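Lab manual, section 2.4: Encoding a predicted structure.

Procedure: take the sequence of the chain (103 residues), apply the prediction step described in section 2.3, and record the output as structure tokens. A sample record is shown.
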Amino acid sequence: MKSIRKMVSLLRNKYFLATLIFAVWMLFFDRNDIVSQYEYGRQVDKLQEEKDFYEKEIMQVKKDLRELDTDLQTAEKYARERYFMKKDNEDVFVIIRENKKED
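Recorded output:
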């Protein structure tokens, strides 16, 4: 019986009610509620992964560019593979593999 009286007196306390209403509002109804914060955190993690991926790609492209600038044979190989370039006395055969559709 004492615990019920204590709870009733606590619920009649205007400071406790104001704090409780404020906490509920901030946790569930505010623009920056718990669910939104969780989604923002997931979005930040996803963007961080993309950033890491693109930083690795940039490093690889810079490495390739250095190789192409310094080594003529690498530049020739790159031009042949990517752009199908050839010397005057050569023939280039391009093989395109088609995937069979399974019915």
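Check your result against the sample. The two ends are 75 Å apart (CA to CA).
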